[in-house]
Structures are given as C-alpha cells and as structure tokens.
Structure prediction request, 144 residues.
Amino acid sequence: MTSKTESVLQALATLVENASAAKLERNASVPEKIPAEGLIILRDGNPGTPDEALGGFGAVYYEHEVEIEIYVAEGDQASRDTTFDNLVTQIGAALESSPDLGGLIFGMSYARPDVTIEIIPGAHAIKSGVITLVMDYETPTPLS
Prediction:
C-alpha cells in the first residue's frame, strides 16, 4: 500500500521526468556526473506539520515543500545558459499541464529557480538552480 505522500511524489517525478531529455534522479547525493542533456534531482522535501480539524477528526492537510534541482555542465557559457533555460521552461510547462497532478493535490506554487555557477578548475563550470515547489493536499491520517 502506497501512502498519499509517496503517490504525490511519484506523480511529480513522472511529470518532471517526461518533461525533458535530462536525466532525473530522486533524492540522489551530490551529482558525480552530469549528462550533456542536464541532470534534474527531485528532493522529497518536507511535508511540514499537518493541519488537522479541531478534535483531530477527519483528514489532515499538508503544504509539502519539495525541491527540483537542475544541473547543467556541458558547453560554453552561452550553451549552458540555453540548456538551463530550456530545462526550466520545460519543467514549468509540465507543471502547468497538470497543476493538480491528476487530482492528487489541490494545487501547487513555485517560482523561477535561484541560480548558482560553480567554477571547476580545468573543467566546464556547472550552472545549477533550485525550484522550490509547494504542493497542497490532504491525507486521511498523518501517516497515510
């Protein structure tokens, strides 16, 4: 039996994975190799403290914050910028195509990623960014 939270995370992973040719990993450690198409890492994040009805009866509600990390390392600066922007727009289009993940959530909110450039001596720089995504959904109990 899969929990509602795991079902939501799996649906999000599938949606993001199908959005681009970049490799998707879930909860991976720091990337060792970044493919030419880019790398996307989905972090399960924190569902936060559940909101419960008074008396503890009924469903619980979550504002679950997850992170979508994007990494690009191939090519010159202009090429990395283009690949990175393409990944961001592809992920954005995918999220807009299913704002309720097929009815699993009430909705989601997100913004453009914070961007970082990591200089690697003797190698291509790595452009990365994190999209913080907040999903609103309910579960029958805190652990279901």
In short: The chain has a mean pLDDT of 93. The longest strand covers residues 126-139. Strands lie at 23-26, 39-46, 51-52, 60-72, 107-110, 114-118, 126-139. The longest helix spans residues 77-97.
